[in-house]
Design goal:
It is a single chain. The protein is an alpha/beta fold. About 40% of the residues lie in helices and about 10% in strands. The strands form two sheets. The protein has a six-stranded parallel β-sheet with strand order 5-4-3-6-7-8, sandwiched between helices. The protein has a two-stranded parallel ribbon with strand order 1-2. Helix 4 packs across helix 9. The longest helix is centred in the C-terminal third of the chain and has 22 residues.
């Protein structure tokens, strides 16, 4: 079944060799033997279930797209991520810095750096992912994050998925990895810079959407992450952002000083205990 009206989706379904090849009627429906009316639902997740699957007689409980990884892929991704992160018991938060810049979907990279620093200050273990379209950000991210936050570029989609599957929470702007993480059932914070989340945003069962008319700030995403982590973990590991965050920080240097003030007392106590 193809829920897309694009030629590529029609081509894949048409040449799949499946007995029943269903898709949306239109310019590229020549490869289908079951043609469906264009969905009237605005949100693509609702359209998939209510208007594409139901007409095929596939009536069931509400379903969402899912990606299945093999046990070997899951183990490989988990081992890879564990090797990159420092020892500890904090939640692993994946951060994808991409988004289509030409369509105004990419958040400034400095915001992602500030987000990673803020999460780390609150006992989470962030890891930053970049895609092929974000290679121009790689050197700046390496400099800003140094060796404090792992930076990963993985062009292989299955290996990338296995790494994302090892995260407790995934954060990204409106992009393909948002839906990939949702399909892996990794709880997701989706940052929308445009007011089109009703159409393209994942449902609340899978993700928390952050949007502000005046523009999304780092503190907005940090607060969403805090809420998600407190719901996923048995005890609050991320404190109230409004009280103890890098809110209102002008530079990353200031944010690092705030992080040190937060962490040094704990390190000194550990030294005393030793």
């Amino acid at each position: 079944v193809s829920g897309s009206s694009a030629a590529l989706g029609s081509f894949i379904v048409g040449f799949s060799g499946a007995r029943f090849r269903a898709g949306i009627e239109g310019r590229w429906d020549r490869w289908f033997n079951i043609r469906l009316s264009r969905p009237s639902a605005v949100n693509k997740y609702a359209a998939l279930h209510d208007e594409l699957l139901a007409p095929l007689g596939l009536r069931s409980a509400k379903r969402f797209p899912a990606i299945m990884l093999t046990p070997a892929e899951i183990a490989e991704g988990s081992e890879r991520i564990a090797a990159m992160l420092p020892d500890g018991h904090g939640p692993i938060v994946g951060i994808f810095v991409g988004g289509r810049k030409s369509r105004g979907k990419r958040w400034p990279s400095a915001n992602f750096v500030e987000l990673a620093t803020g999460l780390r200050a609150h006992h989470a273990r962030p890891i930053v992912f970049v895609g092929p379209e974000e290679m121009d950000l790689l050197s700046d991210l390496r400099f800003a994050l140094a060796d404090r936050v792992p930076l990963v570029f993985e062009p292989d989609i299955r290996k990338f998925a296995s790494a994302v599957a090892s995260c407790d929470l995934f954060v990204a702007c409106d992009s393909g990895p948002v839906h990939l993480a949702c399909a892996l059932r990794v709880r997701t914070v989706a940052v929308f810079l445009k007011n089109n989340f009703d159409r393209w945003g994942p449902p609340p069962e899978l993700a928390s959407i952050v949007y502000r008319d005046a523009g999304v700030k780092v503190v907005d995403v940090l607060e969403a992450c805090r809420a998600q982590l407190n719901g996923l973990w048995p005890q609050p590991l991320v404190e109230k952002i409004a009280n103890r965050s890098c809110q209102g920080i002008g530079t990353m240097k200031t944010c690092r000083r705030a992080w040190l003030r937060h962490r040094l007392p704990r390190r000194r106590l550990e030294q005393i205990a030793d």
